[in-house]
Amino acid sequence: MMRVAVAGYSTTKFSLDHSPIENLLFSATKQIFQNTKNISQKDIDAVLVSTNDTKRYLAPIVSELAGITPKISHSIESMCNSGTNAIVSGFSYISSGMADVVLVVGAEQAENPGQVLDWDASRGEFQHPIFWGTMFTKAHKRKHRTTDEDLAYVSALNHKNAQDNPVSYNSKKYTIEDVMNSKKLTDDLRVLDCSRSCYGSSAVLLASEKVAKKYTDTPVWIEGIGQKTTSASFTKNDLTRLDSTSDAASQAYSMAKITPDQIDVAEIHDAFSVCELMILEDLEITQKGQAAKMVRESYQTNNKKINPRGGLIGSGHPLGATGLAQISEIASQLTGNSSKRQVENARIGLIQNMSAAATSSTVLVMRQ
Amino acid sequence: MMRVAVAGYSTTKFSLDHSPIENLLFSATKQIFQNTKNISQKDIDAVLVSTNDTKRYLAPIVSELAGITPKISHSIESMCNSGTNAIVSGFSYISSGMADVVLVVGAEQAENPGQVLDWDASRGEFQHPIFWGTMFTKAHKRKHRTTDEDLAYVSALNHKNAQDNPVSYNSKKYTIEDVMNSKKLTDDLRVLDCSRSCYGSSAVLLASEKVAKKYTDTPVWIEGIGQKTTSASFTKNDLTRLDSTSDAASQAYSMAKITPDQIDVAEIHDAFSVCELMILEDLEITQKGQAAKMVRESYQTNNKKINPRGGLIGSGHPLGATGLAQISEIASQLTGNSSKRQVENARIGLIQNMSAAATSSTVLVMRQ
C-alpha cells in the first residue's frame, strides 16, 4: 500500500459574512496553490469536494475556476463528517495507485439547510442537534456528576485557544462566568456550550510517497484510519458512550501501531461542550469520568494539546470544511507552523470527526 | 493492486410513480441481499450512495434500514456521472486493501431539482440540458450530414431494446415515423429524442478477488477505468467531439489492454439521440461520421450490442441510478443472464457515462 502524505493545506477565515459556495471553495483552493511549492494544475489527478450544500457539480466547478482538469471529480457528503470521509477517499485513490495527487476541498454556508438531519422518527419533534446535545449532557451529568461549571471550562478553553487562531470566526475572550451566564437554550445547554454554524472553507493536498517531496520538505503522513457508522437515527443503548468513535479509534490506533498516550496533539469534534468530554474518554486520551478534570487543568496550565485552534466551539463549524480544518491544524502543528498555538515537540497528531450524535465517526492518526 | 469484481447487482423498476428517496435506495439494496448468495450485513465494509438528491446522510440512513453498520458511508455526487464515480471510489477502497466488500447504491426522483446545472454563465439563458443537446445536434448535422431520420433510428432502436427490459419505464414500441412525428421541442430535437428523468434505483456489490467467489460463481471483473473532467461550463472548441469521453476511453482501453473492436456489448449515455452517435464515434467503436449507419443497421438486424436494456432514451434516466443500472446490465450480459436482451458470447463489456454536456465522463471495461 502506497503511503499518503499531507503535502499542503489551507483554511480560510471563518465568518458570518455571506459568500457563495463556489467562492468559498475557490478561496481555499487558491491558497493551496499559493502555499505549496511546485504545485501545478496538471499534477492534480482528483478533486474531491466536501460539502452539505445542495448545489450540484461543485467539484467540476471548482476545478474549472482553478484551471484543473482532473480525472476524478465529485462531491462527498456525510453531514459533519464529510471532510474526513473525503480525506479517506483521497487516501484510497492514492494508496491503490490510481492517483498521485488529490485535492480535497470543503466549504459550507452558515444557513445551509443540510445541517439538520430531517430523516429519523426516533428524534420525534427534537430534530435540531441541540436536543441530542442536551440528552448527552443530562446522561453525562448523571453518570459522572459533571457540573455546569465543568462544561463551562470546555467552552472557555476552546474560546481561549481560538484567540490565537487567526481564522477563527470569534476571537473574544469568555470567562467561566461569561459562559455560565450566557443564554440558556435547554435545561442543560447554554448558547456558549454550542458550536456555531458559519461560512468557511478548507483544503488539503494529498500526495503519494513517490511525489510528496516535490511539494513539501515536511510531509505529514496519514498512518492510522478508523471509520464506523452505527446508525443514522438516535437509537443508543448508552448515552454516555460514542460507540462509533471508540470503534474508529481502535481501528486507527491499530493501523498506526500507537497507543492513546502517545498522542501529542488532537483535534476533536466539540459540537457541544459535553462532546469534548465524551470524546476524550472514548478515545482513551483520559479515563472515563476524568475528562472534566483534564479540561480544567488544561485551562489553568494553558495546555493546548486538545483543540489548539479552538475546536468547533471556539473557531466555528462550517460543516463540510470542519474535518479539513482539523487536518490542516494537525499538519500545521506537526510541522511546527502553528506560531502562538504551537504544541511543543508535537510528533503524533489525532483527528476525530463525527456526524449526527456520533452515529458515524472518523479517527485519523498523523505523524511527521 | 487487488482485483475488483462485481459480485451482485440489482435494478428496480423505473417509473414515474412517486417514491421517497430512502425507499428507492432501500429497494435496490434489498434486492442485492435477495440475489446474492452468502451475503451478510456484517460483510459490508462500505456503503456508498450515488444521488443528486438534496437529502443528507443517505448512506447511514440506507445502512440503518438494511441493518448494515459499515466502516465507510457517504454520498457521492457528480450529476449524471454519479453512479460511475461511486463505482470507481468503491474500486479504490478495495484495490487499496481498505475494504473487501463495498455496496454502491444509487437512486433519483423524477422531479429532483439537481438535474439542471444552475451554475454556468456560458450557458446564458439556456441552462436546460436540451439546449446543449440541440447545439450538439446542429453541429453533428452540419459536419456529418446527419438527418432527422438518422436521429429517429437511435430513439426507435433504444425503445425497441427497452421492450425486452422488464424494469424500463416505457415499454411502448415507436416506429421511425412515430419518433419523427413526436412533438418538436427545439429546431432539432423532438420529445422522443430525449431521455426521460424518472424514479428508479440500482445497486452494485463490489468484492475483492479474495472474497468474490463466496458471493458469486460468475464474478465480472472491472479491468479498465478511465475518467476525465474537462470543465463544468459549456465551453467547447469542437461541438462534434466529447473530449472527456475520448480521454476516458483511452485510459480505460490502456488499463484493460484492449482495443475498441474487442468490445462485445456496451452501455452508453444517450441523454439525447445525437449523444449516442457522438459517443460511438468518440469511443472508436465506429469511425467518425459512421455511427448513424451503424445504428440504422443495428435496428434492421436486431443487433443489441449497444444499449441492450434500451439506454436512457428507452429505459429512463434516474440520474444517480443510471451509471449503476448500466453496470448491472453489463454484469448481467457477461454472465449470460439477460434473457431476451442477451448478446451472444459477450465476453468484454463497456460502460460510458457522462455529465452536463460531457464536461466529465467515465469509461469502464468489464470482463467475465
Strand content of chain A: 15-25%
Distance between the termini of chain A: 19 Å
CATH topology of the largest domain in chain A: Peroxisomal Thiolase, Chain A, domain 1
When the domains of chain A are counted, the total is: 2
Q: Which structural class fits the helix and strand makeup of chain A? A: alpha/beta
Tell me what the structure shows:
Two copies of one chain form a homodimer. Helix content of chain A is 36%, strand content 18%. Chain A has 368 residues and is of the alpha/beta class. Chain A has two domains: 4-111 and 198-220, Thiolase/Chalcone synthase (Peroxisomal Thiolase, Chain A, domain 1, 3-Layer(aba) Sandwich), CATH 3.40.47; 127-194 and 221-367, Peroxisomal Thiolase, Chain A, domain 1, CATH 3.40.47.10. In chain A, strands 3-2-4-5-1-6-9-8-7 form a nine-stranded mixed sheet, with helices on both faces. In chain A, β2 (46-50), α2 (58-66) and β3 form a beta-alpha-beta unit. The first copy, chain A, is globular, with a radius of gyration of 19 Å. Chain A starts with a strand and ends with a strand. At the A-B interface, α2, β3, α3 and β6 of A face α2, β3, α3 and β6 of B. β3 of chain A pairs antiparallel with β3 of chain B, so a sheet runs across the interface.
What attributes characterize this protein structure?
homodimer; alpha/beta; Peroxisomal Thiolase, Chain A, domain 1; 12 helices; 36% helix
